[in-house]
Amino acid sequence: MKFGKALLLLTLSGAVFAPTQITFAQDSIEKAKAVRDEDGKYYDADGNPTFNIQPDGTVDWYTFSGYRRYHSDCHVCHGPDGVGSSYAPALVDSLKTMDYGTFLSIVAEGRKNVGGGKENVMPAFGDNKNVYCYMDDLYIYLRARAVGAAPRGRPPKKEDKSQAAKEQEKSCMGG
């Protein structure tokens, strides 16, 4: 009988929370919507960098670049496609509530969480050009994943790299 009551409570709680989760996802997608394009880089209404994914699955260059950069430097700890691991949290969950400035700060400066007999350390990447030159790309990719706009795996199609992206990369990387 206890099992039946627990199952009923779980069913009821799922029914209560499901609409809230759907509303959150819809609000997040709407908030992340690209409203401005500057040389192939997209921004939301608040001026934060964001993704632009076409109905056929074509992603903007920065989302694609973010996917590549994430899987070269971040996935070892945070798991493939930002889903987390036993070692580090799921960034697809973190980015649901983390703003752009906080993301930049944590990636550049690192972070240490201690509590409950457990210590988690995010190293600082502010001096690693392979990360800091592409922080916007990483943010854009993870933001698209967090709101469910980008599926797991390598994006099947991408926009061409803009001249502005080429120049920024050359300037930052020193080439």
TrEMBL record:
Residues 156-175 have a biased composition (Basic and acidic residues). Residues 1-18 form the signal peptide. GO terms for molecular function: electron transfer activity; heme binding; metal ion binding. The keyword Iron applies. Residues 65-128 form the Cytochrome c domain. Keywords: Heme, Iron, Metal-binding, Signal. InterPro entries: C-typ_cyt_methanol_metab-rel, Cyt_c-like_dom, Cyt_c-like_dom_sf. Residues 150-175 are annotated as: Disordered. Pfam families: Cytochrome_CBB3. This is C-type cytochrome, methanol metabolism-related. It comes from Mesorhizobium denitrificans.
